[in-house]
Amino acid sequence: MTAQSSARIYRGTPRDLARLSRILRGGGLVAVPTETVYGLAANALDAAACRKIFRAKRRPSHDPLIVHIHSSAQLEMLAEPNDAARKLAQKFWPGPLTIILPKRAIVPAIVSAGLSSVAVRMPRHPLFRKLLERTGMPLAAPSANLFGYVSPTSAEHVANGLGNKIAHILDGGPSAIGVESTIVDLRDPHAPRLLRPGAVTRRELERVLGTRIRLPRKTRNDRAQISPGRLPRHYSPRTPSVLHERISPSAPTRAPATEAWVFIAKPRDVSGQNIFWLDDRGQLSGAARRLFDVLRKLDDGRFTRIHFERAQGGGLADAINDRLKRAAGKEPSKR
Ligand code: TXA
Ligand code: MG
Questions:
Q1: Which of 5, 26, 148, 270 would you label with 231, given CA atoms 20 to 30 Å apart?
Q2: What residues does CATH 3.90.870.10 cover in the chain?
Q3: Residues 117-139 pLDDT 10s
Q4: Is the domain defined by 8-209 classed in CATH 3.40.50.1110?
Q5: At 259, is the secondary structure helix, strand, or coil?
Q6: How far is the CA of 271 from the centre of ligand 2 (A)?
Q7: What does DSSP say about strands 39-43 and 139-140: parallel, antiparallel, or unpaired?
Q8: Which of 98, 149, 291 for mutating ligand 1's site (highest number of atoms within 8 Å of CB)?
Q9: According to the model, what pLDDT value does residue 329 have?
Q10: Residue 249 — pLDDT band, cuts 50, 70, 90?
Q11: What average pLDDT does range 107-124 have in this prediction?
Q12: Smallest Cα–Cα separation from 169: which of 152, 155, 149, 180?
C-alpha cells in the first residue's frame, strides 16, 4: 500500500501553523495529528473542501465525517446539544469522545452524509488544538487512510497511504491512544447508544450520565442506524486474519512459519520470527497504542495469515477487540 509520497511534512512551528491554517481557510486539505488516530481535515463549513476528503480517501459519500471543534461555542453552532451532551463534553472534552446530535443547517449535507445528525469531537492533541484555534473554523476529519484500510497513527502511515493524494501532513508524533474515538449517539438523551467503543469506556459514560448505554442495533440495511465504521470488515489489513479467543503456545509450532501470531502480552513459552506482541507486559493502553502500527507492519506481504489473540477484560479491551474483529472480518474462533 506504500504510495510514492509527494506530501510535505510539517513539524508544527508557528510558521507552519500559520501556513496550514491559511490552506484550510482556502478550502484545502491537511492531514492532522490527534490523540486517537491521524485525521484528514477540511473546513467543515465548506462543502467543496469536504468533497475533497471523500475523493482523496475514496470514501463512499454515505459515510459521514466527524467535525472537530476548539470551543464549546462551536458545538452550539453546529448541533443542538442536550443536557446529557453538555455533561459528557464537560467531563471528557478535550478528549477521545465523539457525540452524535441533531445538526443545525449550517453543517453541509456532505459532512453528515445527508443525515439529520452530526458527529462532534473536541480533540486533545496540543498541535491540532493550536491549528483549530488559528484556523477559527470547525474541521471535518475522518481517519487519514484509504477507505477500509487500517487507520494511521503516525505521519509516516499517512504518507504511505495518501502521500500521492494530499500535499500537507502535520506531524505531531505517534498518536497517544492509537484507536479511534468512542462514538455515542445522544440524539435521544434518554436512550444513549454506543456506536463505537474507544478509550472513553461505556462504564465511564454510564457513570457520568447515570443511565444505561445501549449497544447499537444489529441492522444490516438501515442506513440511518448503521454507522459505517461498523461495517463488519473495516480497518482491514489485506493479509487474511483470524481472531482467537486464546492462542495456545503450541499452535504456532504446528502451523506453517509463514503465519504470524500476535499476542497482547509478550508470551513466555513461545518465540520466533513469526511471534509478535502488542505490549511487553500486556498493558491495554500500550497494546492500543501499537495495534495499528503492528497491523500495518505485518501486512507487507511477508505472511500468508495473521492470527490475533483477543484482549481480556473490559474498557479499552472492548475497543481493541472491536478493531481486531473488524480486521479479521468476523467473531473470534476457538483454537
Ligand atoms: O478518533 C476519531 O474519531 C478519528 C479522529 C480523526 O478524530 N476519526 C475517525 O473518523 O475515526 P472515521 O474515519 O471513523 O469516520 C467517522 C465515523 C463514520 O464512519 C461514522 O461511523 C461515524 O463517524 N459518524 C459520523 N457522523 C455520524 C452520524 N451523524 N451518525 C452516526 N455515525 C456517524
Ligand atoms: Mg476511518
A1: 5
A2: 8-209
A3: 999 999 999 999 999 999 999 99
A4: no
A5: strand
A6: 33
A7: antiparallel
A8: 98
A9: 83
A10: confident
A11: 98
A12: 155
Looking at residue 131, its pLDDT comes to 98
Asked if residue 153 has its Cβ within 6 Å of ligand 1, the reply is: no
Strand, coil or helix: 16 = helix
C-alpha cell at 187: 440524539
Residues with CB under 5 A from ligand 2 (ion): 143
The three cell numbers of residue 270 are: 513461545
pLDDT attached to residue 224: 41
DSSP state of 140: E
Q: Positive or negative, the Cα torsion across 233, 55, 70, 75? A: negative
From residue 66, give the alpha-carbon distance in Å to each of 33, 54, 134, 181, 335: 14, 13, 19, 10, 38
- Annotate 290-334 with DSSP letters as a single string: HHHHHHHHHTTTT-SEEEEEPPPSSTHHHHHHHHHHHHHTS--B-
Q: At which residue does the C-alpha cell 476548539 appear?
A: 70
